Automatic annotation (TrEMBL):
Belongs to the thymidylate kinase family. The lineage of its organism: Eukaryota, Viridiplantae, Streptophyta, Embryophyta, Tracheophyta. One of its GO terms (molecular function) is nucleoside diphosphate kinase activity. GO terms for cellular component: cytosol; mitochondrion; nucleus. This is Thymidylate kinase. It comes from Lactuca saligna (Willowleaf lettuce). Residues 14-189 form the Thymidylate kinase-like domain. Keywords: ATP-binding, Kinase, Nucleotide biosynthesis, Nucleotide-binding, Transferase.
Length: 212
């Protein structure tokens, strides 16, 4: 094979605590790859625009109450409802920069006390990211960044527990980014890592599935 027919977009995931800078960095990476002429889209989970996403949003803003297992499965369903579009985009050559994914799902629900293996189960079969970048920041520092916005999970003690579960979920392939550095420095580091990944997927690196 020349590899040409297997060329595809890269599935790039950004993870980290609330206020670690994922959303700003997603936007910067999007315009960087765009500028280089790579087809790319920026996605995020939860995707609050779908019917499931609206239930999640109402829960996060404390407008509704849900059992911990129920909201966990809704977050997962929100990824499943986007799965086929995600695969189609990647196969058509578009790279996706995704702000949060299954790791958020497992880390946040486990931090509430749900069994970690139970949390992983509904994620099995979703597309595995080609790259996970973890924006690493001490929970105290994240909390200082202009304060939290008042959504359900934006509390220091809870975020400390989430950080522990992220650590348990992380593997040596994750790129750990020091999110305490100035935005521009973080951006420079991430640009380089992302470009490597996009190039290797263009060369036909196979798509795989969770849970790895
Ligand atoms: P956001 O601030 O990135 O929109 O995410 C909203 C909150 O939802 C954030 O505190 C992380 C949490 N979350 C989960 O608990 N499970 C999930 O599967 C995802 C994607 C996010």
């Amino acid at each position: 094979s020349t590899g040409q027919s297997d060329a595809r977009g890269a599935l790039i995931v950004l993870e980290g605590l609330d206020r670690s800078g994922k959303t700003s960095q997603s936007a910067r990476l999007l315009s960087h790859l765009n500028g280089l002429g790579y087809p790319v889209e920026s996605w995020r989970f939860p995707d609050r625009d779908t019917a499931v996403g609206k239930m999640i949003s109402s829960y996060l803003t404390n407008q509704s109450q849900l059992d911990d297992h129920t909201i966990h499965l809704l977050f997962s369903a929100n990824r499943w409802e986007k799965r086929s579009l995600m695969e189609a985009k990647l196969k058509s050559g578009t790279s996706l920069i995704v702000d949060r994914y299954s790791y958020s799902g497992v880390a946040f629900s486990s931090a509430k006390g749900l069994d970690i293996e139970w949390c992983k189960a509904p994620e099995v079969g979703l597309l595995a990211p080609d790259l996970v970048m973890y924006l690493n920041i001490p929970p105290e520092k994240a909390a200082e960044r202009g304060g939290y916005g008042g959504e359900r999970y934006e509390q220091l003690e809870f975020q400390k527990s989430v950080a522990k579960y992220y650590e348990m979920l992380s593997d040596p392939s994750w790129k750990m980014i020091d999110a305490c550095l100035p935005l521009e420095d973080v951006e420079e580091q991430m640009k380089e890592i992302v470009l490597d990944c996009v190039v290797s997927c263009q060369k036909g690196k196979p798509l795989t599935h969770l849970w790895l």
